[in-house]
Amino acid sequence: MQTDTGTQPTQAASPQRKPLKDLRGFWRILLAVVAPLPMIGMGLNYILSPVDGGTSFEDTVATYTGHLDQVRVTQYLGVPFLVLLVPATFAVVWVSRRGAPRLTTAGAILAFLGQLAGFPLNQGGDLLAYMTAKNGLDVPTVAALQKHLEEDPLALIGGLLFIIGIVFGLLLLGLALWRSGAAPAWMGIALALGGFTHPFMPGHVASGIGLLVAAVGFAGAGVALLRTSNDDFDLAPSRPA
Prior knowledge:
By secondary structure, the protein is mainly alpha-helical. The protein is built from 12 helices and no strands.
């Protein structure tokens, strides 16, 4: 009599999936560090500039001619503003969004719209003036070029949206940071006042101080991020089911 000595096939074990790397702490600390840098850089840019805002192109070139090294330093100081202002603003939005959702949303829309429109569309004249002074270019010709650039409709729209984003967007985000309770109230007020008053300050030194005041508000968001746990910052990494 034969007996069945075979065995039932066993189900293949599913391969173990490696756990996902949790990088929430990296992003949280990175945003905290980045937050105050744009306004610090641009504030120092204004303070160290040898000319006031609104100075004619011809007078700017004449002044730059005697201060080329100083002007070059101020241009480097402005780089964080151009490169990091969007993520710095995002840091404020991320911190205040839960405690003041409506103010944060309104401020974020204005601020991001102004930044994303202003940076590519608004061509400033500082670099043209510097290159004219450094390379001995024909001042009337370059001044005419700068005038046409400033009067271009796209540049006018970009400049208007940028001013709205800085003045009203940062004002609302500062109030949102204050109302949210995520940072000390005075830091939210500093962001609101620094952004709102900056275009109206007399002279480049006062304008730069206004931006440094705004940097204190951005730093408030950075401090809040450093004090936040990873779980409060964002959801843990996971794969779709």
